[in-house]
Amino acid sequence: VIGDHPNTVEDFDWSEDGRFLAAINYDKELWLYDAKSYDLLHRVSIDIDYPHGLLWLSPRRAAGAWPYELITFGRSGMVDRFRVHDERAYHLGVMNEPVEPVAGHHVTVR
User: Fold this and answer.
1) Is residue 84 classed as helix, strand or coil in its secondary structure?
2) Which candidate, 71, 74, 56, places its Cα nearest to that of 10?
3) Three-class DSSP labels, 4-32
4) d(CA 65, CA 9)
5) CA–CA separation, 3 vs 5, rounded Å?
6) pLDDT tens, position by position, 20-75
């Protein structure tokens, strides 16, 4: 369904309402698609060493939360936050210092 990725797609996820599909690849890029037509909407470089995952943040996570935000993470443990506005992904910055995954725990993002 999704073509034109120059390298391996490492992870992908749909926004909670099914409007967007986001994917990251080993070329350190975040690709944003319309989830119904699979048209590419925006593509942006990410500054992560070996990207491994992405996750849309629930718009229900806090009162007044932006409805379209996602995080990306890689081997380094750094988490970057992006906001989608007008069908473009904007980098909001690094969220934390490197973290080690801990089984059975999760990070709360506001």
Assistant:
1) strand
2) 74
3) CCCCCEEEEEECCCCCEEEEEECCCEEEE
4) 28
5) 6
6) 999 998 888 999 999 999 999 999 988 777 788 999 999 988 888 999 999 998 88
